[in-house]
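Q: Hi! First time doing this. I have a protein sequence and I read that you can turn it into a structure. Is that right? Here it is:
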Amino acid sequence: ERDAMGGDCLNTGCVPSKALLAAAKQAYRMGAGEPFGIAPVEAKVDFAKVHEHVHGVIGTIAPNDSVARFEGLGVTVIKDYARFRDGSTVLAGNAEIAARRFVIATGSRASAPPIPGLDKVPFYTNENIFENKECPAHLIVIGGGPI
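A: Yes, that's right. Below is the predicted 3D structure, encoded as structure tokens:
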């Protein structure tokens, strides 16, 4: 692993997006109690605290994907890029790993669509939106994936 343990799912994908979604659902429910005889209340969102919630959920799960946990299970964790030297050898950092078979789990990266002028304005991807401590006034989502 060359980046943060837990990869996209823990750090910039599944976990933070579902934590944010849980906060949004809670805010929605506060105003949707009328059919149940509950007076609706307008949710007052403190986005900095929502940010803390999202990162708290990540922090709670992170030990399950930590270097210490994997090493405790007998896994050697190499924090570096890897490349194939040949069909049966991988080089990762200073390590040379030989095997008959390898599982390649390369993860993913966000890509910006080819929209003229996009490179001249700030924009969010799943890799940076969860660092935002203020709720954007407007947000357009282009594309989408399993996150």
